[in-house]
Amino acid sequence: MTTTLEFASFATEIDYDDLSPDVRDALKRRVLDAVGIGIAAADAGPPNAVADTVADLEDNGPCALWRRGRGASPVQAAMHNTALVRYLDYMDSFLAPGETPHPSDNVGAVVAAAEYADRSGKELLAGLAVAYEIQAELAWNAPVRDRGFDHVTHTVISAAAGVSNVLGLDEAAARNAIAIAGTAHNALRVTRTGEINEWKGIASANAARNAVYSAMLAKNGMAGPRNLFEGQKGWQSVISGPFEVDLSPGERVHDVMTKRYVAETYAQSAVEGIIEVAEREDLAATDVAGIKLQTFGGAKLIIGGGEGNRYEVRNRAEADHSLPYMLAAALIDRDLSLAQYEPDRIRRDDVQELLRIVDVSENPDLTERFEAGEMPAVIDVTMDDGTTYRVEKDAFLGHPAEPIGWDALEEKLDAVTGDSLSPDGRETLLETIRSLEEHDVSDLTALLA
Fold first, then answer.
1. InterPro entries per the record (predicted)?
2. Which H helix or E strand runs over 70?
């Protein structure tokens, strides 16, 4: 049975020298993906609500609020910057049979704590390795979705561990930080069921904030339940059930996927497939009689109607968790990016009519293949004249089986940031992240401020 001490020991023992060159490179690519998405989200409504709330609470502070031109405490910076990374639903994901969290939810917290502690880029990478590893191991070995808890229940623990690392906490203090975080902040799955609203995109920011606050309390001597995981009525008893982890120096980062499309994780292969067939056959939406998607259990559950009606789509939060909407919009527009989530696009008759003839079903064989590491999808598009076009996918570009490298990530950065970065600013940001071990964290945050 995994113990709280096991996580605390791991969090405090890992440093930059423990990371392989491949892990270092992968973590830097995760940073680039996260900050690019964060820059793109700066004008969105819910992140602006977070920014306004931070401004109400604090005049200034030592940690940059990305794109705001001012600072805040590490706690509030973690909340704000994580909201930017997460809100557009374009962040990375870790694929496990019973859970699909977003490890980049840790980036805002670890960066803020590292900036506060005046750490180097090397130290930041070590803290991120800790957070990514623990997030992935919890998702794989201790899924909580079917027990009614949201995946950010894992994030508050992984982020607290990563933050403990960059703050330089000793084992006892890290144990307290993890214990406080995991005892007090377990989020409910209702966030992503039924009628979805904008809290879906902010819940992980709340977890990041709570993680940093827990670590700061521990830094200043606050004790938490030392047996969080293994204790009577503790986390394993109440939240997850018994589990074991096998922690490595950040190697789990290689199992993280990059989203090619602005869509919920489980939709990526299906969206890629329907765009392929629409382009190949030059399909017109007005000639489509029906769309049938065979998918795996998790996709059917979360975005195919198992946890609520996915045919009533009125806003962004509902659209990016609706397979019917995503497939309809992708077929019509041959794309699924930020433009497909503008309110006028969501409400337009063409997509609203087409989404209602999208049928989503679970195929047990595809569920088995998903649990073995694929992300399969079988799509049949039937036309008014009876012709049916089929496309089958095992994975998508960005899946760990087909990883995205630096060049494609730079293209994604350009696509999402547009004119938000000057040419010189773009090149400086890229150079800083590519050579993060040669910089201080403050060099990075100055570019984001």
1. MmgE/PrpD_sf, MmgE/PrpD_sf_1, MmgE/PrpD_sf_2, MmgE_PrpD, MmgE_PrpD_C, MmgE_PrpD_N
2. strand 70-72
DSSP letters for 284-339: -GGGEEEEEEEE-HHHHHHHSSTTS-SS---SHHHHTT-HHHHHHHHHHHS--SGG
According to CATH, the topology of domain 265-393 is 60s Ribosomal Protein L30; Chain: A; (3.30.1330)
Query: Would you tell me how many other CB atoms lie within 10 Å of the CB of residue 45?
Result: 10
CB atoms within 10 A of CB 389: 16
Q: Name the nearest CA neighbour of 123 among 388, 448, 440.
A: 440
Residues in the chain: 449
- Confidence at residue 135, expressed as pLDDT on a 0 to 100 scale: 98
Q: Do the Cβ atoms of 375 and 268 come closer than 8 Å?
A: yes
Rounded Cα gap, residues 275 and 262, in angstroms: 13
The H or E element containing residue 369 is: helix 364-371
Q: Is 232 helix (H, G, I), strand (E, B) or coil?
A: coil
CATH class of 4-258+415-448: mainly alpha
Q: Could you report the per-residue pLDDT of 310-326, keeping only the tens digit for each?
A: 999 999 999 999 999 99
Residue 71 has φ and ψ, to the nearest 5°, of -120, 180
What's the whole-number mean pLDDT along residues 398-417?
A: 95
Kindly give, in sequence order, each residue whose CB lies less than 8 Å from that of residue 214, ignoring residues fewer than 6 positions away: 156, 160, 177, 178, 180, 181, 184, 185, 224
Per-domain boundaries in the chain: 4-258+415-448, 265-393
Residue 196 pLDDT: 86
Task: Give residue-wise pLDDT tens across range 181-235.
Answer: 999 999 999 999 988 889 999 999 999 999 999 999 999 999 999 999 999 999 9
Banded model confidence at residue 114, pLDDT cuts 50, 70, 90: very high
Contact 69, 169 (CB under 8 A): no
Q: Give me 10's structure tokens.
A: 């791991």
**Residue carrying the six token digits 């799955």:** 189
The two beta strands, 377-383 and 388-393, are: antiparallel
Structure-token pair, residue 154: 């894992």
Strand partners, 70: 65
Region class of 334: left (phi > 0), else alpha (psi between -120 and 50), else beta: left
CA dihedral 430, 257, 122, 439 (to 10 degrees): 10
Instruction: Name the helix (H) or strand (E) containing 378.
Output: strand 377-383
Tokens of 376: 């399969």
pLDDT in tens, 11-20: 999 999 999 9
